[in-house]
Amino acid sequence: MLKLIRIFAFLLIAILGGLWGLAWYVRAPGEAMGDAFLRQLAQFGGADMPAPSAGGVQLPQGIALGGAFSLQDHTGQRVTERAFAGKLGLIYFGFTYCPDVCPTELGLMASALDLLGPDSARVLPMLITIDPARDTPEALADYVSRFHPALIGLTGTDEEIAAAARAFRVYYRKVHPPGASDYLMDHSSFIYLVGPDGKVRQLFRPNTPPETIAAAIKGQMRQL
Ligand code: NI
After folding, report:
1. Cα-to-centroid distance, 2 and ligand 1 (Å)
2. What is the rounded distance in angstroms from the CA atom of residue 120 to the CA atom of residue 117?
3. What angle, 0 to 180 degrees and rounded to 10, lies between the N-to-C axes of helices 33-44 and 2-26?
4. Mean pLDDT throughout 163-190?
């Protein structure tokens, strides 16, 4: 019996070690080892890649996020996914009244762009508001300028914002915190790296280090 347990333990360690090695070998540029390992573990168990879990997750085949949108930028110009032609896009959905998460994520995006140096000219960073009632082009112009000179703020009608959010499977909802004088928006928080076709290539969960984001962008640039 003891021998059986030993053999079982040995096999388990061998399998996990093998998956770790495989994860190291096949992981995407910029993808954290832990994420790559979980992906291998999930595949080994016959499961699909667990949804957007991780730092620099590469989307599994068959899952398409992103695509067409038509919105208005903070200077009043109409912007669609065609703006990404020949470039990459870095997109975040948030709102200017957000007390903490949005400023943090936009700061990380700005740091990632700075880390890219001249290469950042091939990246279009965008903030798409999920609070169009308050985030007018003027409000967005003031807000985006605090983070990065290249950051573009995008707003639109309720329907246009809803369509863009649907394409990226972004969740958002108005909430009224007790005691607060105004409403807030509850929303999902991922940074999306999109290709020249506007489709998501990779996404980053909250608090992904800017070095990871910059490395993923460089990896995708090689495939441009
Ligand atoms: Ni927020």
Report:
1. 54
2. 6
3. 120
4. 95
Domain chopping of the chain, boundaries: 2-55, 70-221
| pLDDT reported for residue 224 | 84
Token duo for residue 67: 């695509």
CA 185–ligand 1 middle distance (angstroms)? 7
**In 3D, which of 64, 97, 17, 66 has the Cα closest to residue 166?**
66
The 10 Å Cβ neighbour count of residue 224 is 10
Q: How far is the CA of 141 from the centre of ligand 1 (A)?
A: 17
Compute the distance between CA of residue 185 and CA of residue 170 in angstroms, rounded to an integer: 12
Distance of CA 108 to the CA centre of its chain: 11
Q: How far is the CA of 100 from the centre of ligand 1 (A)?
A: 6
Domain 70-221 = CATH 3.40.30.10: yes
Say how many Å lie between the CA of residue 61 and the centre of ligand 1: 29
On the question of pLDDT at 63 being above 90, the answer is no
Distance of CA 187 from the midpoint of ligand 1 (Å): 6
Q: At what angle do helices 101-116 and 210-221 cross, to 10 degrees?
A: 50
Write the single-letter amino acid at 91: I
Q: Provide mean pLDDT across the span 25-50.
A: 51
